[in-house]
Amino acid sequence: MDGRKEQWSSKLGFILSSAGAAIGLGAIWKFPYVTGMSGGGAFFLIFIAFTLLIGLPMLISEFIIGRGAGKEAISAYRKLAPNTNWVWVGRLGVIGCFLLLSFYSVAGGWVLIYSALSVPGMLITDATNYPDLFGSIISNPMITLLGLALFLLINVIVLSFGIQNGIEKANKYLMPLLFIFFIILVVRSLTLEGAMEGVRFFLTPNFENITSEAILYALGQSFFALAVGFSCMVTYSSYLDQNVSLPSSASWVALMNIFVSMLAGLAIFPAVFSFGLEPAEGPGLLFIVLPTVFSQMPFGELFLSLFLLLFLFATLTSSFSLLEIIVSAFTAKGTRSRKAVSLTSGLIVFIAGIPAALSFSALADFQIFGKTVFDATDYLVSNILLPIGCLFISLFIVHKMDKELVKQEFLLAGNFPNALYSAWRWLMKWIVPIGIIIVFINLIRG
């Protein structure tokens, strides 16, 4: 491991932390409303296919780069392709994660605030107007900045303890709790009157409702959902021992992500259909539709609190990986304290996140190409930087990285036939880059 001081203590810790990085806003917030807008079951089926054919090979690639180099993102590309411009793939990852975290933490702050308000008697009342409540929260500068600060403070505290005692330990508690809370919510949702209509919508493929736009959404979601593109997983896998199979670990992460997406659908759609609401609500699904749903069921406050807590857990486990790639880049030489770098990084991200936090209040009239700062940053990261990062990583793993090292890392600690390696390499050479280019063109046009 090239003398790296820190490692994951176990394969389980690595898988849970990688799954935590992948399972976040995309799986629990974006996936359900995109599924609702794209026709339900058929979209879910296409999403699964793309996740296995595009997202999973990309995830394996990042794992191979990280462990093959034994370095965090920037140093990994510098070591594997010395004296070349490929180091900019790692730098792009750090910049992309910084920008992503600056607005992601704003949304994380909203979830944190809603979680606090969901204490029984504070969020669900007969007089609550949920669209107005959401609007009043995101338009209040003090509340949004406080949420942003507290969310980042949690991240800084966890990362300051390091890989094993910080990120890994947090994920070992948060990820099992996330699954337990989800299963409780799914059981409650499925027992509602009329719930089966929502289950049929979500799990019955009806390809008549599928449009070319929905297929492209599913394609894009397949690599967004696994946290690939910004080399977060390069950094995570650089802490991994040689006795762990990378394809096997990546497969577990992909399957856990698909499972969480399924749980999210089974928790949300039966409840939405049970109360006659629209599944294609868009981003308001979490903060407006779901409180409305829970307010109409027995013990609704309790179940809403559980949902918001699990959503907070998922948002945090993803943000750990975003901040870690930044922290690891500045502690790589071992001359800086992890605690000091974590605190400094968190403070800089907070300052950078202030314009996004004020996008719906003091800076509501400030537009960049017709978008608020929050939306413009989201567009830049999700529609431009992330697909570019994915494309360069797919080109690097096939055309630049040493082929023998790639094959060695792929086959290490796993009883896989050479045919599986050949199939993965073929996907990375042809299918993955073509898929990324298609998504990129579609996102830019959109």
SSE map:
Layout: H1 11-22, H2 25-37, H3 41-69, H4 73-80, H5 87-117, H6 130-138, H7 141-160, H8 162-190, H9 195-203, H10 212-224, H11 232-237, H12 246-274, H13 284-295, H14 300-331, H15 338-357, H16 373-399, H17 403-411, H18 418-445
Quick rundown:
The protein has 446 residues and is an all-alpha fold. It is built from 18 helices and no strands. The chain is globular and about 65 Å long.
Q: CATH homologous superfamily - what is it?
A: Hydantoin permease
Order of helices and strands: HHHHHHHHHHHHHHHHHH
Helix content class: over 70%
Provide the CATH top-level class: Mainly Alpha
Q: What structural category do the secondary elements indicate?
A: mainly alpha
Radius of gyration: 21 Å
Count of discrete domains? 1
Structural account:
- With 446 residues, the protein is an all-alpha fold.
- It has a single domain (11-445), classed as Hydantoin permease.
- Helices cover 75% and strands 0% of the residues.
- The chain is built from 18 helices and no strands.
- The longest helix has 32 residues, at 300-331.
- The protein is globular.
- The model has no long low-confidence stretch (mean pLDDT 91).
Task: Quickly list its features.
globular, 75% helix, 446 residues, 0% strand, Na/ntran_symport, Hydantoin permease
